[in-house]
Amino acid sequence: MLHVFRAHAKWIWWLVVPAFLIWFVYLGQSGLGNNGPITPGSTIAQVNGTKVTYRDWLQLREQAIQRAQQQSSGQLSLDDEQRVEDDAFNDMVNDILLQQEYKKRDITITDQEIQQAALEEPPPQILQDPQFQTEGQFDLNKYRRYLSSPIAKESGIRLQLEQYYRGQLPREKLFEQIASQVYVTDAQLWRAWQDTHDSAQVSFVRFDPQSIPDSAVHVSAAEIQQYFNDHKAEFADRPGRAVVTLATILRPVTKADSDRVYQHALALRKEIEGGAKFDDVAKRESADSASAVKGGYLGRVTKGQFVKPFDSAAFALKPGDLSMPVLTQFGYHIIKVDEHKGDTIAVRHILLRIQQGDSTAAISDRRADSLSHAANLETPAEFDVLTKKLGLNTARVDVTEGEALTIGGHDVPDVSAWAFTAKVGETSDLIDADNAYYMARLDSLTPGGKPTLASMTGDIRSELIRQKKLDMLLPKAQQISDAYAKGQTFDQAAKAAGLTVSQSPAFSRVTPVPDIGQANEVVGTAFGLPTGSVSEPVKSSSAVYVLKVDRRVDADRAAWQKQKDQQRTQLLQRLRQQRVQEYLADLHQSAKIEDHRKQIEQQNRTAQS
To answer: What's the predicted TM-score (pTM) here?
Structure first.
């Protein structure tokens, strides 16, 4: 029966996860607090008093990382692991909050509801499973026959489905309670239609605050303090910041390297044309590990979802055809389209990365071996001595907690995640990336958290300077409005001020407008003034404007009436989703959440050093 289990493992695993979350929330909590040595029962987090032990968190974290590794079919970088861990923690918190809401609202699920849902509402992963499809469509009868078969009983699928629905159905009931009060009136529908179908066209004069030098604006310390006091509640927690010195050994590729990979791609294409299965060759050769395990399958996509060379080549193919090698920034691709329906294709590819040849790689590898000795250096100064001796370029770069480091369009893996677990002066291990070898030294570290006046002073000063510049421009803008009121044309008034009049394209209330912006004060004024009139100065967040309404066209009410029912359905769905998202955000915001992960990890590192 092992082969049966393996065949269904991808969605069995997906069903197990919610059940595991529910298990650890209710059964896995025996935290003993964060004081003293770290033990499996130490409390690593609390959510409204519900404790999460270190043991349970490690199990959940390991499960999440294993799933991510299976999906990517490769080793995760430290940045990837950090992202997976943070996502797992947030999912855990949300699950605890939902469990608390179910209890508060007395939401329960009966066995009959579970049985009915299992028969009539299969999970998304089962809907997509080829074994339950007939001619490309999910076959409910085939699925039900499978559920009643001995194989389903022996593989444990029924139990997994039960656990899935015990987690899913309460969530659906809660969301229905939250969103059931959302309703859309005809007046609201008409206003929404007007927002997208009323149009205006304006002439305008724009006064740019960049025309005033910063040195012409004075901001006092008292003003900065007052702004900080008035807006303190609006400031979000800031992520940690680090400064690292990064040494780089590039791994350049030559034309010969590119030609070699191109010829290999041609050879693979010839192999497939000779009878080899595309799926088998993709599994064996493709550098895109995530799609390689699926025979190179990328899914059903519409035009524009890929980079342009790939996109153009894929949509030019007929089903069953193979492309010639297509070059993108990722390497050479061999593309095959399985089907083409309307504007959608089902597409596969084999990716061959362009990498260094043996001779140039040997040079880079020798330098990298020498650099790797820096991992055991005793003082930060020795890092500078070694990199200088090797003739390496170094650069001081800023790193933001939770964000992978990117330099020159290339991702630098691991550095960000490492920096916030290291000590100042410490040197990282050698980092092996596709385009280069890297090594970093941590020069400074600023923990994240609630911003202080000192950390916000620069941003506040810039904001106050911007506001003051806009206020300084208002009298100049008023001169144009006054000149027009006294009989000058709009063009004459602008010319007298040394400015020119610009014309906008037609736009709606929600359309981005070049040099004006989107859904701001200027757009509102364009729809509020009578046609042919000139405004008083209008201040937006980026500039000051004076505008003249040249043309306005009202929405067609008869056209709105014809589509009103469809519009109501779509808007209701969107508003209900929005209501649920807002509710969950409020639930999270009002919760008392204690996260001791960093503290415990630091204690573990200290104990090991």
So the answer is: 0.66
